[in-house]
Predict the 3D structure of the following.
Amino acid sequence: LTAFSSVAHICRDVNYGWLIRYIHANGASLFFVCLYLHIGRGIYYGSYMYKETWNIGIILLFLTMATAFMGYVLP
């Protein structure tokens, strides 16, 4: 079973599957918009001066982006 056929099954055979797909896609996009706004706020208020905290945040950002890549591009 491939990822595409799984998505096709959900969209066609599950009640409101198309709605689940669109909510998931838009929710993921909104999540990343919130992340970027949060980073922008940190830059605006000078939070990058706290090196350890800022670096942990950058590591979390990279892990989030890697997880999204693994789940969206690779299947």
Notes: The helical segments are 3-13, 17-44, 51-72. Residues 3-72 form one domain. The longest helix spans residues 17-44.
